[in-house]
Request: fold
Amino acid sequence: MQLLMPRTKPAFLVASLFFLFAAGVPVRAQSPPSDNNLEQRVRELEAEVRRLREAQDNGRTIVPTRSMSDAEQPPAPNGTPEQLPPPTPKSTDGAAQNKEKSDKDSTPVAGWKDGFFLQSKEKDFVLRITGQIQTDDHAYLNDKDQTDIDSIFLRRARFGLEATMFQYYDFRFLPDFGQGQAVIQDAYLNIHWWEWLQFETGKFKQPFSYEQLIQDRFVPTMERSMIDQLTPARDVGFMVWGQKLFCDRLDYGFAVSNGEFNGNGDTNEHKDINGRIAARPFNSPEFFPWMHLLQVGISGGVGVEQEPVSPSTLKTPAFVPWFKYNSTVVADGVRSRWSPEIVYFYGPLGLAAQYLREEQELRPSAAGPSYPFRQDVTTQGFYVMGTYLLTGEERTGYIALDPIHPFNPCCPCACAGAWELVARVSRLEVDSSVFTPGRAQLANPATNSPGATETTFGFNWYLNRWVRMQWNWEHAWFDKDVQLGPTTANRTRYQDTIMTRFQVIF
Reply:
């Protein structure tokens, strides 16, 4: 084979070859190379020598062009491989990645979950917007009743704000603009460092009566029972409460308040104390599933009242009045009340029953010849209610209900929403001593009844989680004729009412 070698000085050639071998050009000594390999190797050496000569002529220092790893490259003057800095890779440091993720997670998020909300990723700060609109229609079927007229009205119109700050501090502000009035329903701060021990202050629902503590938007009947008009409802005060104690077996609450029915202020220096305890003794895997949601509880309250009697008029759930105290009657003394309750849920079935007894010291007037006649008046009553879902849903409480197949007008048979039947009976009666003739009389026996009973049958249609339609028929009858108009011709022993409601909530 003829080799074409460039003309060069022997010393330069020897130095060049030595430099190549010193730089790492491999020498295969294991076996004699083949002709093809030798020819290829010679050509590589020729090209390398040619490049070295050009470099020498130009006065430059050249590093061989063969690809090297960092360990193979000759050191530069600063002790690092002489090469261009590589592109900066994405950080693989765990702390840097966590910081990146944390920065991303802390960005606010807005959306919809049972209402509009704005929150941080960690949910330390959450702002929720809530609303409720209830449009009702009442039709009274007894023509003798001239007090109650058929009407369509806005029962509730609420727009509320709820917030959680620093994870443990809850705030709620809920005004109501229904029936042409602006009333603050809720305005409170709740601190929940622990679920079993929470602190609440402001205007809120008092811990009294299971029926009253059901949110207005989730009550299965359009209106609560007869005894509900004697419960404290909302008041301004301070409360200590907790829930789900002992593995979700116990709830409790104790509050000190002004003692006013849905009041924003106080009329005397005395305060009311209210409390409630509810237990679910069989709510554990050791018992049968049908026993888990059996709940028993009791509420109690006491206070001293010195103000006009409230409520002064007792009504049926459909607002038909059947008893009214004389306009001069005042509360002057101790008012106590207690109410045991029992609640049960299993599958589509819901049952609730409650008894209430109130004792209150009343005077016929705050001054004058009838003032000395003070008497302790007892008012007592009960309700029993049952509900049943026809479309396969299950209840764990009277809370938000998600239909299995929300209503779709394009296929109403397959997607009909949730259907629920409701039945209730309730009664309330006042001590007959209120009709005592003479200066001690508290109410007129000619126009009032000492007691009333009502039965309600209803049907609820849940189109979806937020839209509900209700139909109630209430039949109420009184222990004595009640005058519902200006003359004796308006006296009646009963009233039938058809009620309809369309509700939107979020």
About this structure: Residues 106-505 form a domain with the Porin fold (CATH 2.40.160.10). The chain has five helices and 20 strands. Residues 361 and 376 are 4 Å apart (CA to CA).
